Structures are given as structure tokens and as C-alpha cells.
Amino acid sequence: MPSPRLSISIMTLMTLALVAAPIWAGPPDISGVEAMKSLVGEWAGTESQGEPVRVSYQLTSGDSILMETISLSDHPSMVTTYYVDGDHLMMTHYCSLKNQPRMRAAMPAGQAKQLVFSFVDATNVSSPSQAHMHRVAFTFQDADHMTQEWTLSKEGKELPTVFTLARQK
Questions:
Q1: Please, what's the largest Cα pairwise distance for the chain?
Q2: Which among 13, 57, 106, 149 is placed 20 to 30 Å from 78, CA to CA?
Q3: CA-to-CA distance for 104 and 83, rounded, in angstroms?
Q4: What is the C-alpha to C-alpha distance for residues 26 and 71, in angstroms, rounded to an integer?
Q5: What is the Cα gyration radius of the chain?
Q6: Residues 158/134, Cβ–Cβ less than 8 Å
Q7: How far is CA 10 from CA 2, 3, 6, in A?
Q8: Under 8 Å CB-to-CB from 127, ≥6 apart: which residues?
Q9: Model confidence, pTM
Q10: 65-72 and 78-85 as β-strands: parallel, antiparallel, unpaired?
């Protein structure tokens, strides 16, 4: 029979190993996050009516936030942040409509070919009929080509706008 000191030492080591195991394992494999992080750089293309659009992506906050800046010829620039919240991807869109919708996407299993963010809530939106972005879907054709379908909700109607984008650098 082991001595009481040895038993306590073994139990202490086992407890430390169990507590540290999640840290040693590292972060889970999150393909949606990797798909979003792969967007870092400059993108250009057109929106549904053929007007030019430029989109820039950069990582910030210890690489935990992907920041997107969208520039359309007829609108002020807009910023969107993408980040992990538990087992979901979240986004906050700082819109030229002067509101801030938050949307959530499920983490896809395997290689992410599409991510769909759906409305959760918003600041500066006083009623559901007030104009706000309600959904955005990213479709990744390959490493250098994607589409984004932004859906505006206004007075109960959904108005989609599609950005067709190619990597510039």
C-alpha cells in the first residue's frame, strides 16, 4: 500500500493533468473561423447593380477578431467584426444606416464552402420594421473568389444585394 504522502502526490498530479488537458489540447478545429481568417487582404468586385465595391479584411485583437471594411461608391464605408462565441461565429455590422445588427452562424463541419449569418439583435433599431441588415451569406468559390449576399429587412420585406468579389492582394 502506498504511503499517504505518495497517494496525495499522485492525486495532485492527476488533478493537475485533468485541469490542464483542455489547455494542452489547444483550440478546437473550427473550419468556419479558418475560412473567415483566410480572407485577410484586399478584395474588389461589383454589387448587384454593377456598381464597384471594395472590401478589406484584417485580423486584430490578438487575431481573435476579423475586421471587414466595405466601401461602396454611393455609401459611407461600413465596418463589420467577425469573432467566435462558444460554438458559433458572431458578427457585428456597423452599418451606414447608423445601426448595429448582430448575427450568428453555426460552425460548419469540414471545409466551409458557405457561412450564413442570421439576425440575433441590433442596437439603434427601434422596431422590427426599421431598415436593418438581417442576414449575410458568404459563398467561397475558391481561395480568391467569393460572393456575399447581404439581405436588408425593411418594412417586412427582404431586399438582397450580392457582392461578387475577387482577391486583389
A1: 80
A2: 106
A3: 10
A4: 36
A5: 21
A6: yes
A7: 10, 11, 6
A8: none
A9: 0.78
A10: antiparallel
Q: How many residues does the chain have?
A: 169
- Taking CA atoms, 90 is separated from 28, 36, 99, 101, 118, in Å, by 17, 11, 16, 11, 9
pLDDT digits (tens, 9 = 90+) for 112-141: 788 999 999 999 999 889 999 999 999 999
Angle at 48 (CA atoms; ends 45, 51), nearest 5 degrees: 55
Q: Which domains, and CATH codes, for the chain?
A: 31-167 (2.40.128.20)
Provide the Cα torsion 152, 67, 87, 20; round to 10°.
-170
Query: Is residue 168 classed as helix, strand or coil in its secondary structure?
Result: coil
8 Å CB contact between 115 and 89: yes
Q: Give the ranges where the chain is alpha helix by DSSP (H).
A: 4-25, 31-37
Q: Average pLDDT per run of 10 along the chain, which is 169 residues long?
A: 48 37 40 76 95 96 92 91 91 95 84 88 91 94 95 94 94
Place of cell 451569406: 137
**Strand, coil or helix: what is 36?**
helix
In the structure grid, which three cell numbers stand for residue 169, read together? 492582394
At position 158, the amino acid (one-letter code) is: E
Q: Locate 138 and state its grid cell.
A: 458568404
The span from the CA of 81 to the CA of 103, in Å, is 10
